Amino acid sequence: MAKATLLFLVSSDKHTGVGREALWHAKLLAEAGYRVLFCCQQGGTLQERAEAVGVWHDAGLTLPTSGGFGAFPLDLWRIWRLARREAVSVVFTYRTADHLMAGLTLRRRVPIVRFLAGRQSQSGMFPPTPSAIWLLMADWASWVLAADPLDLGLATGLRRVVASEPVPEVSLDAGVTLDHQRARALVAGVDFIPGGVDTLHFTPDRGGAGIRRELGIGDEHVVVGLVAPLKEDRGHDLFLRAFAKAREQAPELRALLVASSTRKEREPIQALAAALGVGAQVAIFDAGSRFEEALAAIDIGFLAHPGSAGTGRAALELMSMARPMVLMMRSVLMYLCCGVGPSAIPADPADLKPPAGVPRGDVPEDLPGFLARSLVELARDPELRLRMGQAGRALVEARFSRSALQRQLVALVERLSAPV
User: Which of 43, 35, 38 is CA-nearest to residue 24?
Assistant: First the structure.
């Protein structure tokens, strides 16, 4: 019996953030035998990667986010025609624009999956977007459909899926396990599907010596890395302040910021590093096609934000490569701190305390100082880095592997596409 046809609507042209997560889901479902039609904004790296994977489908969609709204009615018609012609069983959406178009076009016909991240998952209201036009469209849709577009579950078969912060009905606390969180989310009518990583691709034996040489980093140096866009909420300021404090005791430390960036984005980061006296020890590297090699150049990972897709993907990839982590206890990152071993050092700027069993006291108000002590401890103890790295790899293999994520996605699709 042929498996269902799945339609992915992704209003992005970049293989980053939600675009990368969407393609990862599409690839896993295609490998599971489903027919996948992946539609995204054309002409970018996301289309290029989708073509390489073999899931790209040219439906002539514009999928606008901040411009080109004249094509919106035409996109609606093309989505409706595509869904009918290809007998689409389930639609996957990752952004407000995608969900709005799918809801207006296919409600009462095809189940719609909406992956939510960050504050979007904490509100039943239609989440805000950078464009006022989308807000107007959301208000209009709410009036026409007599319901909030995000709460059309009864009419459309909508399933909300969260990978990090839960919806209001599901509280988050430091002692909760992944299984407990998933059970509580299901009771609230929400699927909880954390991110996954290709453990066969991100392996401990990958080498980053070439990038280290290019950046003037020697074998005697210990590299602390932050993999995240140069945005205000990603923790670069905190990272640099902690790094500067740590170097006072561990001068062998070097910092590597892996990010695709513009000069305007780099300038404030470089200025802060210079003001802290570590400008020469901080490198910003645009990895491009050398992303895995860039991660392999890192000895200790740091992450303060779960990313735009909410999955903490950068942490998962570094842990899959057996790198010890220093993690802020935020959303899904907290679950990585509650692993089967000391795979990460947790820290929290708010009121959460490290989970039970982690040999850490309460986090002090001087968060950069606390993080600096953690970095110094890891820099001076290669055996500790090795043990934590191995524990992180074991945790990822057990709970965040591609097979674990694939099983959860397949179960979701089978449940939604099953005959009523």
Answer: 38
